[in-house]
Amino acid sequence: MPNRLAGTTSPYLLQHADNPVDWWPWEPDAFEEARRRDVPVLLSVGYSACHWCHVMAHESFEDEATAAYMNAHFVNIKVDREERPDVDAVYMEAVQAATGQGGWPMTVFLTADGEPFYFGTYFPPEPRHGMASFMQVLEGVEAAWSGRREEVAEVAGRIVRELAGRSLAHGGGGVPGEEELAQALLGLTREYDAKWGGFGGAPKFPQSMVVEFLLRHHARTGAEGALQMAADTCEAMARGGIYDQLGGGFARYSVDREWVVPHFEKMLYDNALLCRVYAHLWRATGSDLARRVALETADFMVRELRTVEGGFASALDADSDDGSGKHVEGAFYVWTPDQLRDVLGESDAAFAAQYFGVTDEGTFEEGASVLQLPQGGGVVDAGRVASVRQRLLAARDGRPRPGRDDKVVAAWNGLAIAALAETGAYFDRPDLVERATEAADLLVRLHLDDAARLARTSKDGRTGANAGVLEDYGDVAEGFLALAAVTGEGAWLEFAGFLLDIVLDQFVGESGTLFDTAHDAEQLIRRPQDPTDNATPSGWTAAAGALLSYAAHTGSEAHRTAAEGALGVVKALGPRAPRFVGWGLAVAEALLDGPREVAVVGPEGDERTVRLHRTALLGTAPGAVVATGAAGGGEFPLLADRPLVDGQAAAYVCRRFVCAAPTTEVGVLGGELGVSRADADDF
Q1: Distance between CA atoms of residues 679 and 683, nearest Å
Q2: Which CATH number fits domain 178-318+404-593: 3.40.47.10, 1.50.10.10, 1.20.1510.10, 3.60.40.10?
Q3: Above 70 in pLDDT, residue 171?
Q4: What is the predicted pLDDT for the residue at 87?
Q5: Structure pTM?
Q6: What number does CATH give the domain 4-164?
């Protein structure tokens, strides 16, 4: 019989709806039940594309004996971390503080008041590698609860007190300046992997926000080292196994420092951020590789992640059926020499094996290889490569596909909207701009209520019950602002303003600090507050960037002051831990540059208007905002009192609404905004 999760919308929770475990969703009634029965709560947190979450589910949660023990001695709560990032953040902080590490699945034992007293992540079904089995953990916790309750209460109380003392005081201490950004660049240089690209060792993550900072720093200062680190990292990732050489799109991270073997799950947020980074790299350098990867990644998102309603699904699983009924990580993506021969024949298989780095020994498991583009090899027949890729992709499409998490997360769709809008504008792909617009329409229609409050998720056209958190407001506003710049439709600027007013009203604390949840959100054992970027911009830095851009569009001092207050944390952390505030550093670059405000006025459809608008979008000036429309105002404040020049379309470049002389010449505008020589043909 299905448990209580059967009535939820989360794909992750629905994966556990038929477990023999009597799961509860996160709700007050679950804690009341624990209080009534006088038993602890077992909290299990994960997400649908999580490989080890699936492993623990198969090993333990589907086991009748284990489930019976859990049901008898605990109230069991299952949480999708992507739907409730606030719950995940609070208890992950406790896990990391207690054990020095974290991850998913996260397993936490709580009192009926939500106070944690024992922690872990994945537990195996039998003792392994020094780890206790899951049943041993369950029995130990039950024994402590029954026989040493005072000790449990003391531990829980101490943990809650320690967490409460961790509130951040950063903010309001000034904004990062030249010195802090130079120190951040120096720190990144020290952590840079000069041989393989990227930062740090294995496992190696894409660090898209750090790359964005490097591109902006180069644009503002001319620092060639910053551009070189960005370009070399992007090339290494694009040639590695972390990038899908057949279908486009990036896996979540590489398990090795050489980018050879990925953790195969594909997340919307990674692909949205990386699509935008590669488009910006092309904008700065004209790199053909960057152009190809940006477009292929955009096409991957549209092809594989777009939902019927027009939004974008959260993720594709790492695991899929290997053809024998067994779910195996990477089965959909890897190849053996024999599989190449079956599809391509002997001659083309040999060519493909050399081109994609497929070996007899394999680079993954059981003799299979992850496709890469190894360096070297001389001139390659592009037509033959295209034919081989097309045939391999068609054959791969016949394999059992990885599962898809179909929920639409507001924040990640905001990132996708920004990426698709800009990529479509740069490369004359109006279809991508249209897909971005449709996703934005979905967010307004399903996620945004009459009071401009955001819902975190939707699925199958049904709005989720969980409130949006700070990253939702910041990233959706960022997406709307990018869409406004590309389309010239001021309604998107207005929607961004609604969201950012909620940020000012509900998320800002004293001295410019920001909280991840609203003032009126559900109260947990502590209010989550994390300024550090992880796989996505933190809510803190996402909000700072959107607030700054909105202020540049409108001249609002309240929004600019809030952005500057939020950047105080970047001043504190940037020089010490630049990899963990990459987006914050990118926003700081925009602040130091102005950011510049570009107004393009002219008749709609006029050739000069179109060329000036495109040039403005191609400018590399960090965080520059762009408005286009008819002379004299309209929906964008930047257009007010901006007349045509000698009856022709013109562009105005301003800082803090103080403008240089307008120009009607594309080349002059490109020079002002740092448009690369790669685009000189447009002048």
Answers
A1: 8
A2: 1.50.10.10
A3: no
A4: 95
A5: 0.94
A6: 3.40.30.10
